[in-house]
Structure prediction request, 400 residues.
Amino acid sequence: MLLADIGNTRIHIYNGKEVIHLSHKEAIEQYADKKLKYITVKHQLKEQLNSLKNWTDISDQIRIKNEYETMGIDRKALCLSHPNGIFVSAGSAITVDLVEEGVYMGGFLLLGLRAYIEAYATISPALKIELDREIVLDRLPVGTREGISYGILNSIKTIIDKHKNRKQLYITGGDGKFLSSFFEEAIFDERLIFLGMQRS
Amino acid sequence: MLLADIGNTRIHIYNGKEVIHLSHKEAIEQYADKKLKYITVKHQLKEQLNSLKNWTDISDQIRIKNEYETMGIDRKALCLSHPNGIFVSAGSAITVDLVEEGVYMGGFLLLGLRAYIEAYATISPALKIELDREIVLDRLPVGTREGISYGILNSIKTIIDKHKNRKQLYITGGDGKFLSSFFEEAIFDERLIFLGMQRS
Prediction:
């Protein structure tokens, strides 16, 4: 059975082996006649998705103990992937959630890397930079581009580290692989949301 | 002698007792015939400021050992206010700088509180919230508004705490008083930049 995670900008499809990332249009064109179960946060697509007879919305089945009402369905699925851990999804926003014995313990939202960079540029043209992806976080930087890159990446790293304690850190999402390079013993796996869907 | 710090949106004037915050237009109208020394980051105003015969640009005198070329003049003045410490200016952006024995040791830039809030809203209408200024940072929140407010304020607090060690924390800027409430033993003083100007 194919599984799909329909996000704000893309549809991610898991065929049991790999995750395929497509635009909404591409995914619907290529997969309309395939049997597929999906979750979606893209409410504007609801009617179009309902018209696809082979596609089944399983969003209502995705529940985690202690969830809150407006909690994103993709976050719930991610938190269901393993019974214990701290779960990071690094996309348009970066969500950080804690799960203990299958119970949702709370979490918080940071900006996604692109949103950070674009927000600095709105403050002043002098702060319009490209992220320095080679920045070293164990010494204080000098310079604007370095200072912004360090501020973004180290504030993300530091607050995640603070909540990690001895828990396993699981990371997914488009910027997940890059972010996981800043943590020792992090598990990056782009299938986590699908594992959660399978387990629900 | 009056001192002025000309920022991107306002002019801050120090009369030796208190700091007065005015729009560019208001400040120029009310203070054009007063003797005044200023620093400025607002390059678009340069010609108009030069035409004020009682106003003297002392930006060239503001230098700190180990400064970098594009370092903002207000940051330099702030770092000159005390020979040792960690200096936070919480305005449109939040700058965090370390000074040891009068030497600039580096620093980084975070988004200002308003820039954070506006950036979340650009990601999704579901993330458009007002900052919860009563948020408690010692327990993990549940909910969107709480999760965003916690993410903003605790990522700022945690990375500043990480760099504080046993140094004195000095805070200034429009959001400085509010931010200082999250730190024990922080000194909030809106005169810091002017103390730096006096000492240069």
Summary: Chain B has seven helices and ten strands. Chain B has a mean pLDDT of 96.
